[in-house]
Structures are given as C-alpha cells and as structure tokens.
User: Fold these one by one.
Assistant:
Number 1:
Amino acid sequence: MRTEEDFIGRVHVPDGAYYGSFTARAAENFRLSGMKVHPELIRSVALIKKCAALANRGLGRLDGKQADAIAKAAEEVIAGRLDNEFVLDAFQAGAGTPLHMNVNEVIANRAEELLGGKKGQYKLVHPNNHVNMSQSSNDVTPTAIRLAALKLSRAVLKEADALRAAFAKKAAEYDGTMKIGRTHLQDAVPMTYGQTFAAWARAIEKDAAEIGRAAECLEELGIGGTATGSGITAHPKFRHMLVAKLAEETGFGLKPAKDPVEMAQDMNDFITFSSSLKRYAATLSRIANDIRLLVSGPKGGIAELIIPEVEPGSSIMPGKVNPSIPEAVNMACWQAIANDLAVLLAAQSGQLELNFATPLIAHNILQSEELLANASSMFRRLCIDGLEVDKKRTAENFERSFGYATALNPYLGYKEVSLLVKEAYASGATLRELILKKGIMRKDDLEAVIKSASGPSEVDAAILKRVKRG
C-alpha cells in the first residue's frame, strides 16, 4: 500500500493502483448496487480530459509536456487499457464527483509515469490542478453523459433500422396472405399478414426518427461552465475551443451552450431523450406481445406464426417450446420503461444551481440504450429472420371466423349479414358455406368480395346487381 493525503487526512491506496485517495474513499463509502459505472461514460470523461488538456495548452495555460502526457494517458483510458482502475459503484455521491475524480487521478498518475515520475506523487501532473484545469464535476459529468448517450444511440438506431428492414421483408413475403384481424382480442375484419408486418416496420421507423430528433438535444454542451455555469477559473475562449475539439473527435454536431448556467441546472434534455427510448421500448414490447399471442398453442391456441426454437421450454413438460426471445424482449423493454421514470425523478430533483442526480441519469439512460440495442438485435436474429406464417392454420382460422362478414354489408345489408352470422354460428357452418347453401351469392362473386376485403374497394356494380336479382 501507499499513503496519500488529502484535506481530510491520510488514505491508504493499493501501491499499484493508478487511482488515488479520492477514489479509495469513494470505493469504501458507496457500496450500493454492485454495478460499475458504464464504460462508455468513463471513456467520455477521458475524452473531455484529453480535449481540455489540448485546449488549455493552446490557450497557454498548460505546459506542453503536461498536456501531451495527459492526452496520451486519456487515450489509454479511452482504449480500455486501464479499465481495472475504475472501481466505483454506479450509484455514488452527487454530481458524479467520485467518478470524475477517479478519471482525474488515473490520468494524472499515468501521465506522471509517462513524464518519469511515480504514482501517488503528483509532482509533475496533479489531478486537480492540471487534469481538471478549467473544469468541474458539474459541467464534466453532464457533458460526458451527453457524449456517451450520443455514441450509444448509434447502435440503437442501427439495430432498430435492421429490425425494421426484417419486418419489411416479411411484409413483402406475406403480402397476399389473408388473415383475420382482431380487435379487443376478438375476430374483426380481414387483412393480410403483409399489412401486419408492414405496420410493425413503420412503427419502428417512426420511433427511430424520434430517437434521432431527441438526440439532437444532447449536442448542446455546458462544458466550460465549471461549477455553476459562470465559467469561473476558465479562459474566456476555453469552452468554444474545447467543444470544437470534442466535435472533431466524435463527429457529432456539438455546440457550446447558449446559456451555460441553465445547462448546469436543467436536465430536461435527458428527459426528452429518455422518453424517446421509452417510446421505442413500448413499440418493441407491443410487437413482442403480439407475436407471443400469434404463436400461442401450438395446438390449443392461435398458432398462426411459427418462430425459431431456441431452447427447450420446460424442466418438466417434454417437448414444450416457449417464445423465449419475445419474452426476453418484453423484459428488456420494461426495464427501459422503468428507467425512464428514474430519469424523470432525477431530472426534476435539481435544486438552485445544480442537479446532483446525474449519476442516476447516466446509469439509466445508458442502460436503456444498451438494452434496446441488444434486444433489437436478438429479436431480429433469433426470432424475426426465421419467423414463418403457417398459411394452412391462418386460412383455417380465417375461414372459421366471421370477419369477412363486414365486406358483405354493401351487397347484402348490415341486418341481413348479422342474421346470417348468427345462423352460421348456431349451426356450426362457416359463413361461406351458409351463403352458398342458401344461394344468396354465386361462389365466384363471394370469393371476389372476400379477396377485396383487406383494403378499400369500390362496390362491384355487377355483383350487386346479381345479388339483388337473385
């Protein structure tokens, strides 16, 4: 062990550790969840440190050798070479100060080594004086959350688009496959499975567009505002130079905050972004629910869809196979929806010049993005790509239903069709069989009306004339 000292007193730190006294204290204090800080948040803080060092060097406030060493050490953090040094619980002290200082200390000690010094001495590079120059936890942490969320949003959007494309492919494949539409879980009117899959594809497309729009809110950065947004201790040009360097590194359309004081207090951009993730989670969960219903059975349920078998479904029932992938999608989506409430509660908890709950915001938003990206990928690869429509079963269910009765209204009238449905239901015959038995319509005319029932169509005057004549 080595001994470091802060204004509270002496602290024992593992001799080989790149972190220092602040991290060691925090690691002892905050043992709440067993979950670590998301790696992408750590990398984003390190990226800020790299760009801040280069900006301060450019402004003549930081020695060139120090700046280069800090930048190089930060690059090692970004590359994941020092991952074991980030030991803190995701739930920690307010404003993310422990994580922020964890990064400052790791970069300072590594930079100290690069310049020929020893860990824990901080003679050549100091975590507060040099690595943290012109910065505060209060502007670094929210900025790092924004950068991390923007980066992870790429995976969410990529996987959402791939899932959309998979459903669009199924829509084309089953464009002419008639099925019975269901409302209130009851037989309703005819439609096609192509329409069902196309609707799911469009819903995902709209949700992804909303995520993209919400992500634009995260491109405004309060970095350079330091403690309360006033910019105390920072060079007047620092925030503009730093944001420009971050934009160059990330490729995002980043811009300095119009009002850094507002940015220090207001976390509502995170509410907007989290809500867009919740919207997508709601759609994915709804689709997963529908698929679970449509594969139910396979003998005692609807059983119109067939999904790939990925694992045995029971420890006691031989041969049972469950819709495991849609069920897992449900659970991932429900967690993302719950996370959104935590983000809302955290964002509204800000008081006066600061919101202390940024660690909670970070944990929940980044977890939601990771869950939704992974769930979308799993859903597509292990379920949707191999999904099939059981055309025989679908046709049987369609024929047993009375859904196409609605299409007969323009030809026979609502009351008359209602009586036919009632009679068919009571006799056990299909509606088609009853109409043909009674000679109410010719077979080819009835087939033509049923075939047109999956969309808008004009009344066929010739069929209407024959029905009236008959």
Note: The first strand starts at residue 2 and ends at 5.
Number 2:
Amino acid sequence: MKKGSLEFWPHRRAIRQMPRVRSSVKTETPSFLGYVGFKAGMTHAMIMDESEGPSKGSEVFRPVTILELPRVVIYGIRFYKKGYAYTEIAGEVYDQNAAKHVGIKSIKKNDVSKFKEKINECERVTALAYLDAEPVSIANKRIMRFEIPVGGKTASEMLAFIEPFLGKELKSSEVFKPGEMVDTTSITKGKGWAGVVKRYKVATQGRKVTNKYRHLGTLGPWHPAKVQFGVPQAGHMGYNYRTERNKLIIKMGSPSETEEVNVKGGYLNYGVVKSDYIVIDGSIPGPSKRLIRIRKATRSFRETKPPKITYLSLNSKQGK
C-alpha cells in the first residue's frame, strides 16, 4: 500500500539555496513584508498560554527554533508595471556603493525622479537587498541577493517608504515584532537516493514472495500499458521547497550578558549565536545553517500578544 503524500507531487529538487517566495500579504500601511535568517538549532521553552484553549492561563511546554539574522542591506528599488499577461519590471534604481558591493558594474545615474513622474503607471514597488553572512560566521563564497515585497495602498506610498532605506541596513525589528504570526519558507534536508520503502513507506515483501524484500510489488495494470505518475518508485528524497504558515514569534533580541539564547557548548553543527536572533514556536524544515525566508503571515486570522516566557532551556545539546 502506498502511503506517500501526493500533496507535494512531483518531488522536485530545489534549484538554489535561496528559497523562493511567490506571494505576500497585502497591507494598507507601508512596511517591509519579509526577512531572512539562518537556522541555528532548537531548544524548548515554557510560555504562558494566552489562547482560548483548555490550557489558557497556564504554562505550556513548546519546542522552539532559533534563527540567527545576518546583516541585510537595501541596495536597490524595483518598479513593476502591468503587462499584457502579468506584471513586468519597469526599471530599477540602485545605490552606487551598495550595488558595487553586490557586483553590479553597469550602474546608471541614480535618478529616482524619472520614476516618480511615471509612478502612476506602476502597480507595485519592491526593495532589492543582499545579506552579509560574515557576522553570523556562515561561510558563503558569493553574495546572496533577494527581493523584499513592500506593503502599501499605492506605488507612490511604497516608493516613499523605501527611498529612505536605500543604501542602508535593514534591521529585523523594523520588519517584525514579538507575538506576530509569520510564514517560513525553507529547503528540507536532502537525503539522497532512496528506495520505495524509505521514500513512500510501502510494506516490505515476504520472504517467499519474490526473494526480494524492499521493493514494489507491482508497477500497475497491463492497460493502460504505461507506468502512471503516482506509482511509488525509488528516486531522490528531500531537498524540496516547503512553506509552513502561521508560526508565532516568541522572542527577538541579541545575545548579551543579561539576555542569553546560546545553549551550553553551542548548537549542534552550528556553534554560537553572535548577532540578532528570532525565536519561533515549533520546528522549521531544514538542517542547521540552512537559509530561511520569513514573511508576514498571509492566512493569519487572529491577533496574538507577545507571549510571556517563564523558562528557556540553555542546557547542552551535545549529549552525554
């Protein structure tokens, strides 16, 4: 019996390390709608439950994930206009110093005024950013660039909001706050080539069936005379794009003497958190050091308050 999920079919391997974000929430107030972070590891915490469930007002045990945030700099502004079938890029404006650091050599005159004259023809405006992984001790050989969507009613409001940030660093506190619901997009852990038993949890065959144990009993009927797409077969497992919705931000901050988030001995396969961090309720797909895209929740139907943390485990994860 096949037990693999067809929800994510077909199982395609991710093309690049930077996860793709295809949509974002629409807000009336101008604001940045996304950020990035590196997965450091997991621990557990005790928080006061403020929901309407049976455990309201009592302490609950929650597994939490710690994300370390790199340095993010806005190096450009991108304008979109309505095309024949979909929105098209109308143009881009760069900050000269930041664009040279990214590797853009052909930089035209930084003139935002020409786009302000035709801003009514634009549908939306987004921010172009790059991350600097040096503060978080992640060895990246190339600079990773990504696009941050911006909320607002009109394109002119979006442009007026982004323009002061051009060429400057964007802090996570300017995007998110504790108690906010977010969506995380990441790439799952790659497990290489896997057989049907591991990949789809099919039942192993008996000893007297075909002298084979870990294989598929049948590939389908004689007619239609072809193997259907849903038949479980061996293949690549893992390293897929996955988005998890409505993850609660429990805590935000930076390591200090009075506020510590590092476990004893550091996180497994990661080390010590040195820069700003976000503590998110629950788990996030992917191994340590994996890049995580964070965006404002697109399907959040309830407002939450910043949870009260009574205990955050800092015990060693190295084992005995």
Note: The two ends are 40 Å apart (CA to CA).
